[in-house]
Specification:
The structure is a single chain. Helices cover 24% and strands 30% of the residues. With 278 residues, the protein is α/β, with parallel strands linked by helices. The chain folds into 2 domains: 97 residues, Ubiquitin-like (UB roll) (Roll), CATH 3.10.20.10; 129 residues, Cytidine Deaminase, domain 2 (3-Layer(aba) Sandwich), CATH 3.40.140.10. Strands 8-7-9-10-11-12 form a 6-stranded mixed β-sheet. The protein has a 4-stranded mixed β-sheet with strand order 4-3-6-5, covered by helices on one side. The longest helix has 14 residues.
Protein backbone atom coordinates (compact mmCIF):
# COMPACT_ATOMS: atom_id res chain seq x y z
CA UNK A 1 0.00 0.00 0.00
CA UNK A 2 1.29 3.46 -0.85
CA UNK A 3 2.02 6.07 1.77
CA UNK A 4 1.63 9.82 1.65
CA UNK A 5 5.29 10.42 2.43
CA UNK A 6 6.40 9.58 -1.10
CA UNK A 7 5.61 11.11 -4.50
CA UNK A 8 4.07 8.79 -7.09
CA UNK A 9 3.29 9.12 -10.81
CA UNK A 10 -0.36 9.92 -11.34
CA UNK A 11 -0.65 11.95 -8.14
CA UNK A 12 -0.38 15.72 -7.68
CA UNK A 13 0.03 17.59 -4.40
CA UNK A 14 -2.14 20.64 -3.82
CA UNK A 15 -2.85 23.05 -0.99
CA UNK A 16 -6.47 23.04 0.18
CA UNK A 17 -8.56 24.59 2.92
CA UNK A 18 -10.06 21.85 5.06
CA UNK A 19 -13.22 22.61 7.04
CA UNK A 20 -14.10 20.63 10.16
CA UNK A 21 -17.16 21.71 12.10
CA UNK A 22 -16.43 25.35 13.04
CA UNK A 23 -12.72 25.37 12.19
CA UNK A 24 -10.66 25.41 9.01
CA UNK A 25 -6.99 24.95 8.20
CA UNK A 26 -4.61 25.06 5.26
CA UNK A 27 -3.40 21.55 4.50
CA UNK A 28 -1.75 19.60 1.73
CA UNK A 29 -3.89 17.18 -0.26
CA UNK A 30 -3.07 14.71 -3.01
CA UNK A 31 -5.30 14.26 -6.05
CA UNK A 32 -5.33 11.89 -8.99
CA UNK A 33 -3.95 13.49 -12.15
CA UNK A 34 -6.19 13.76 -15.19
CA UNK A 35 -4.20 14.66 -18.31
CA UNK A 36 -4.45 14.02 -22.05
CA UNK A 37 -2.49 11.39 -23.92
CA UNK A 38 -2.37 11.12 -27.69
CA UNK A 39 -2.33 7.61 -29.12
CA UNK A 40 -0.50 7.51 -32.44
CA UNK A 41 -0.07 4.61 -34.87
CA UNK A 42 3.00 3.88 -36.94
CA UNK A 43 2.66 1.69 -40.01
CA UNK A 44 4.26 0.89 -43.36
CA UNK A 45 7.73 -0.20 -44.52
CA UNK A 46 10.75 0.91 -42.48
CA UNK A 47 11.90 3.36 -45.13
CA UNK A 48 8.51 5.04 -45.38
CA UNK A 49 6.82 4.71 -42.01
CA UNK A 50 3.67 6.76 -41.61
CA UNK A 51 2.39 8.07 -38.30
CA UNK A 52 -1.21 9.07 -37.71
CA UNK A 53 -3.27 10.16 -34.75
CA UNK A 54 -5.82 7.64 -33.53
CA UNK A 55 -7.27 9.29 -30.43
CA UNK A 56 -6.68 11.65 -27.56
CA UNK A 57 -8.04 10.49 -24.24
CA UNK A 58 -7.95 11.88 -20.73
CA UNK A 59 -6.24 9.50 -18.34
CA UNK A 60 -4.11 9.16 -15.21
CA UNK A 61 -0.45 9.00 -16.34
CA UNK A 62 1.16 5.60 -15.98
CA UNK A 63 0.99 2.39 -18.03
CA UNK A 64 0.25 4.45 -21.13
CA UNK A 65 1.54 1.75 -23.49
CA UNK A 66 -0.75 -0.81 -21.82
CA UNK A 67 -3.59 1.66 -22.25
CA UNK A 68 -2.85 2.18 -25.94
CA UNK A 69 -2.50 -1.53 -26.71
CA UNK A 70 -5.66 -2.35 -24.76
CA UNK A 71 -7.50 0.41 -26.59
CA UNK A 72 -6.36 -0.88 -29.99
CA UNK A 73 -7.50 -4.37 -29.04
CA UNK A 74 -10.90 -3.44 -27.63
CA UNK A 75 -11.54 -1.22 -30.65
CA UNK A 76 -10.81 -4.18 -32.94
CA UNK A 77 -7.86 -2.49 -34.65
CA UNK A 78 -5.50 -5.29 -33.62
CA UNK A 79 -6.44 -8.92 -33.07
CA UNK A 80 -3.40 -10.13 -31.11
CA UNK A 81 -0.15 -8.91 -29.59
CA UNK A 82 1.91 -10.11 -32.55
CA UNK A 83 0.42 -7.29 -34.64
CA UNK A 84 2.21 -4.78 -32.41
CA UNK A 85 5.81 -4.25 -33.49
CA UNK A 86 6.73 -1.92 -30.65
CA UNK A 87 5.31 0.58 -28.18
CA UNK A 88 7.08 3.82 -27.28
CA UNK A 89 6.36 6.54 -24.76
CA UNK A 90 7.36 9.50 -26.95
CA UNK A 91 6.81 12.03 -24.18
CA UNK A 92 4.51 12.48 -21.18
CA UNK A 93 1.51 13.10 -23.42
CA UNK A 94 2.18 10.94 -26.50
CA UNK A 95 2.33 7.19 -27.08
CA UNK A 96 3.39 5.67 -30.41
CA UNK A 97 2.38 2.12 -31.26
CA UNK A 98 4.17 0.67 -34.28
CA UNK A 99 2.16 -1.99 -36.10
CA UNK A 100 3.61 -4.79 -38.21
CA UNK A 101 3.95 -4.05 -41.90
CA UNK A 102 1.42 -6.73 -42.83
CA UNK A 103 -1.37 -5.04 -40.85
CA UNK A 104 -3.23 -2.48 -42.86
CA UNK A 105 -5.02 -0.72 -40.03
CA UNK A 106 -8.12 1.14 -41.19
CA UNK A 107 -9.03 3.66 -38.53
CA UNK A 108 -11.58 5.49 -40.66
CA UNK A 109 -14.40 3.42 -39.17
CA UNK A 110 -13.39 4.43 -35.66
CA UNK A 111 -15.19 7.71 -36.31
CA UNK A 112 -13.76 9.31 -33.19
CA UNK A 113 -13.70 12.94 -32.41
CA UNK A 114 -10.22 14.20 -31.60
CA UNK A 115 -11.03 14.10 -27.88
CA UNK A 116 -12.46 11.40 -25.65
CA UNK A 117 -13.23 12.21 -22.03
CA UNK A 118 -12.12 10.05 -19.13
CA UNK A 119 -15.72 9.30 -18.25
CA UNK A 120 -16.84 7.82 -21.57
CA UNK A 121 -15.13 5.47 -23.97
CA UNK A 122 -17.75 5.67 -26.72
CA UNK A 123 -18.67 9.37 -26.59
CA UNK A 124 -16.71 10.06 -29.77
CA UNK A 125 -18.55 7.48 -31.85
CA UNK A 126 -20.60 9.07 -34.60
CA UNK A 127 -22.74 6.04 -35.41
CA UNK A 128 -24.79 3.86 -33.06
CA UNK A 129 -23.96 0.86 -35.27
CA UNK A 130 -20.24 1.37 -34.64
CA UNK A 131 -20.64 1.05 -30.89
CA UNK A 132 -21.07 -2.73 -31.06
CA UNK A 133 -17.59 -3.89 -32.01
CA UNK A 134 -17.19 -7.45 -33.24
CA UNK A 135 -15.45 -9.61 -30.62
CA UNK A 136 -11.80 -10.44 -31.26
CA UNK A 137 -12.08 -13.87 -29.68
CA UNK A 138 -14.70 -16.56 -29.23
CA UNK A 139 -15.01 -17.39 -25.50
CA UNK A 140 -15.43 -20.95 -24.33
CA UNK A 141 -18.98 -22.11 -23.84
CA UNK A 142 -18.18 -23.03 -20.24
CA UNK A 143 -17.53 -19.80 -18.36
CA UNK A 144 -15.97 -19.78 -14.88
CA UNK A 145 -18.04 -20.41 -11.78
CA UNK A 146 -17.46 -18.64 -8.47
CA UNK A 147 -18.37 -19.22 -4.84
CA UNK A 148 -20.57 -16.54 -3.30
CA UNK A 149 -18.26 -16.25 -0.29
CA UNK A 150 -15.25 -15.78 -2.55
CA UNK A 151 -17.01 -13.01 -4.48
CA UNK A 152 -17.73 -11.19 -1.24
CA UNK A 153 -14.02 -11.14 -0.40
CA UNK A 154 -12.94 -9.50 -3.67
CA UNK A 155 -13.84 -5.82 -3.03
CA UNK A 156 -11.47 -5.60 -0.06
CA UNK A 157 -8.73 -7.36 -2.01
CA UNK A 158 -9.21 -4.89 -4.85
CA UNK A 159 -9.10 -1.94 -2.46
CA UNK A 160 -5.82 -3.18 -1.01
CA UNK A 161 -4.32 -3.11 -4.51
CA UNK A 162 -5.59 0.38 -5.39
CA UNK A 163 -2.46 2.33 -4.61
CA UNK A 164 -3.48 5.68 -6.07
CA UNK A 165 -7.06 5.41 -4.82
CA UNK A 166 -5.84 4.77 -1.29
CA UNK A 167 -4.18 8.20 -1.33
CA UNK A 168 -6.54 10.27 -3.49
CA UNK A 169 -9.90 8.48 -3.43
CA UNK A 170 -10.18 9.57 -7.06
CA UNK A 171 -9.38 6.60 -9.31
CA UNK A 172 -11.25 3.66 -10.75
CA UNK A 173 -9.79 0.17 -10.94
CA UNK A 174 -10.16 -3.03 -12.91
CA UNK A 175 -8.68 -6.34 -11.81
CA UNK A 176 -8.47 -10.01 -12.73
CA UNK A 177 -8.75 -12.64 -10.01
CA UNK A 178 -8.29 -16.36 -10.44
CA UNK A 179 -10.91 -18.79 -9.20
CA UNK A 180 -9.13 -19.08 -5.85
CA UNK A 181 -9.56 -15.34 -5.30
CA UNK A 182 -5.95 -14.41 -5.92
CA UNK A 183 -5.26 -11.07 -7.59
CA UNK A 184 -3.50 -11.68 -10.92
CA UNK A 185 -3.56 -8.29 -12.68
CA UNK A 186 -4.89 -4.85 -11.87
CA UNK A 187 -4.93 -1.33 -13.27
CA UNK A 188 -6.01 2.12 -12.09
CA UNK A 189 -7.12 5.22 -13.93
CA UNK A 190 -9.30 8.28 -13.50
CA UNK A 191 -11.46 6.82 -16.30
CA UNK A 192 -13.32 3.54 -15.91
CA UNK A 193 -12.83 2.52 -19.52
CA UNK A 194 -9.15 3.48 -19.39
CA UNK A 195 -8.59 1.28 -16.34
CA UNK A 196 -10.10 -1.66 -18.21
CA UNK A 197 -8.11 -0.91 -21.38
CA UNK A 198 -4.91 -0.82 -19.30
CA UNK A 199 -5.84 -4.16 -17.75
CA UNK A 200 -6.67 -5.77 -21.09
CA UNK A 201 -3.48 -4.34 -22.59
CA UNK A 202 -1.49 -6.02 -19.82
CA UNK A 203 -3.36 -9.29 -20.29
CA UNK A 204 -2.84 -9.26 -24.06
CA UNK A 205 0.91 -8.82 -23.69
CA UNK A 206 0.99 -11.73 -21.22
CA UNK A 207 -0.89 -14.11 -23.55
CA UNK A 208 -3.87 -14.23 -21.16
CA UNK A 209 -6.52 -13.53 -23.81
CA UNK A 210 -9.09 -14.94 -24.18
CA UNK A 211 -9.67 -14.44 -20.45
CA UNK A 212 -11.54 -17.67 -19.84
CA UNK A 213 -10.67 -18.71 -16.30
CA UNK A 214 -10.60 -15.44 -14.39
CA UNK A 215 -13.09 -13.10 -12.75
CA UNK A 216 -13.15 -9.47 -13.82
CA UNK A 217 -13.85 -7.00 -11.00
CA UNK A 218 -14.65 -3.34 -11.61
CA UNK A 219 -14.54 -0.68 -8.91
CA UNK A 220 -17.48 1.36 -10.18
CA UNK A 221 -20.67 0.86 -12.12
CA UNK A 222 -21.02 -1.46 -15.10
CA UNK A 223 -21.79 0.38 -18.32
CA UNK A 224 -22.40 -0.95 -21.81
CA UNK A 225 -18.92 0.09 -22.93
CA UNK A 226 -17.21 -1.90 -20.17
CA UNK A 227 -19.16 -5.06 -20.99
CA UNK A 228 -18.30 -4.53 -24.66
CA UNK A 229 -14.59 -4.30 -23.86
CA UNK A 230 -14.81 -7.39 -21.67
CA UNK A 231 -16.49 -9.31 -24.50
CA UNK A 232 -13.65 -8.34 -26.85
CA UNK A 233 -11.24 -10.01 -24.42
CA UNK A 234 -13.33 -13.15 -23.95
CA UNK A 235 -14.34 -12.43 -20.33
CA UNK A 236 -17.15 -14.66 -19.07
CA UNK A 237 -17.67 -13.35 -15.51
CA UNK A 238 -17.96 -9.67 -14.56
CA UNK A 239 -18.51 -8.33 -11.05
CA UNK A 240 -18.61 -4.72 -9.91
CA UNK A 241 -18.95 -2.74 -6.73
CA UNK A 242 -21.42 -0.46 -8.50
CA UNK A 243 -24.65 -0.93 -10.43
CA UNK A 244 -25.07 -2.13 -14.02
CA UNK A 245 -27.02 -0.21 -16.65
CA UNK A 246 -29.94 -1.82 -18.47
CA UNK A 247 -27.97 -2.03 -21.72
CA UNK A 248 -25.00 -3.60 -19.94
CA UNK A 249 -27.30 -6.33 -18.62
CA UNK A 250 -28.83 -6.92 -22.05
CA UNK A 251 -25.41 -7.22 -23.67
CA UNK A 252 -24.14 -9.58 -20.97
CA UNK A 253 -27.20 -11.81 -21.43
CA UNK A 254 -26.73 -11.81 -25.18
CA UNK A 255 -23.17 -13.10 -24.80
CA UNK A 256 -23.80 -15.54 -21.95
CA UNK A 257 -21.83 -13.56 -19.39
CA UNK A 258 -22.43 -13.75 -15.65
CA UNK A 259 -22.99 -10.22 -14.36
CA UNK A 260 -22.80 -9.32 -10.65
CA UNK A 261 -23.39 -5.84 -9.26
CA UNK A 262 -23.53 -4.03 -5.91
CA UNK A 263 -20.84 -6.41 -4.68
CA UNK A 264 -20.30 -6.21 -0.93
CA UNK A 265 -18.82 -8.55 1.67
CA UNK A 266 -22.17 -10.10 2.57
CA UNK A 267 -24.40 -9.24 -0.38
CA UNK A 268 -24.59 -8.76 -4.13
CA UNK A 269 -27.04 -8.95 -7.02
CA UNK A 270 -26.76 -11.41 -9.90
CA UNK A 271 -28.33 -9.93 -13.03
CA UNK A 272 -27.64 -12.82 -15.39
CA UNK A 273 -25.74 -16.11 -15.31
CA UNK A 274 -27.06 -17.12 -11.87
CA UNK A 275 -26.09 -20.78 -12.49
CA UNK A 276 -22.39 -19.86 -12.25
CA UNK A 277 -22.63 -18.56 -8.68
CA UNK A 278 -22.80 -21.12 -5.89
Amino acid sequence: MLTKEKAYPGIKKLNVVKFKTDTNSHEEDQVAIEAPVEIRLGSGPANSRVEENLAITMRTPGNDIDLAIGYLFTEGIIKNKDQVLAGKQVDESTVLIDLVDSLKADISNQSRNSYTSSSCGVCGKTSIDLIKTEPNVVPKLLHPKAKAKLLGSLPNRLFQSQAIFSITGGNHAAALFNLDGNLILDAEDVGRHNALDKLIGKALQRDMIPIQDHLLLLSGRISFELVQKAIMAGVGFIAAIGAPSSLAIELAKEHGITLVGFLRTNSFNVYCGRHRVY
